[in-house]
Amino acid sequence: MTLPDGQSGDANRLQQCVIGLVHGPAERARMASTLRGRSLEVIFVDRVAELRDAVMQARLPIAAIILEVRDADGRPVHEIVEDLHAGGTGTPLVAYCRPGAEHSSDIRSLVLAGAHQLLFHGIDDTGIALRHILEAAQQASVSERAAEELMRVVPRKLATFVSHVTRYPATQRVSQVADALGYHRKTLVNHCAQVGFLSPHELLCWCRLAVAGELMARSCRTIESIAHQLDFSSDTGLRNMMKRYTGLKASEVRERGGARCVVAAMRRQLPATAERSKAG
């Protein structure tokens, strides 16, 4: 995520929650011991209906939802994963699975429904391993949301570019994107020119800012930690780029919707040819 660290005094108040459709008391205890004390409220439920209620009634922003493949009544949970995913909430969804071929069908259903990460009973459901899984799930969710917002204005011809940079937002050079996609750098320049769009470098910057904005809006992370994760030179470097490109302070982007706010600013700066190309 990175999960918020517990702090003293007023800063130790709860900032987010994790909801778990997790049955066993031992599993619940392992997760709770890892997550509590990190400015997180941990809420456990047994059934799909209870999970829906917990999501609707959550008084804190939801940092992640962890779901066993079936609820306490034996009902598969992949349908609610589909609902949560389709709802566009941007909530990281983690499938909590038991290893073994006999469970492969349920695991596959959860992955196809849109789970961002897999977590396995008795293997990585405690300590630093659990925290890393939740962080990876949030990164996947944030990248997904940023890409969705960007593709509202970016021509389809550049979809693979957007997908790569939002998945690997620490990327700083167009040549790195070209190498990863198996293109020559000039090919990316030509692709942008053909659709009358921004240059590859400008698009790269907008993609990174969309991810940064989404992290700001959907987590309690500091700007410093987000800048470090995305390989900006400093938090000042991220703040300055955000202001230069969007006209907004980082705090304003956080308050106004993250990636959606960034992409709205991007749309205002697009050349008319790009708007016509997207519309076509």
What would you note in describing this structure?
The chain is built from 14 helices and 5 strands. The chain folds into 2 domains: 9-142, 3-Layer(aba) Sandwich (Rossmann fold); 151-279, Orthogonal Bundle (Arc Repressor Mutant, subunit A), CATH 1.10.10. It is globular. It has a 5-stranded parallel β-sheet, sandwiched between helices. Helix content is 55%, strand content 10%. Helix 1 (25-35) crosses helix 5. Helix 4 links the parallel strand 4 (93-97) and strand 5 (117-120). It is an alpha/beta fold and 280 residues long.
Number of strands: 5
* Helix content range: 55-70%
The CATH class of the largest domain is identified as Alpha Beta
Separate helix tally: 14
Overall pLDDT level: 87
CATH architecture of the largest domain: 3-Layer(aba) Sandwich
Please give the oligomerization state of what you see.
single chain
Gap from first CA to last CA: 38 Å
Radius of gyration: 20 Å
Outline the biggest β-sheet.
5 strands, parallel
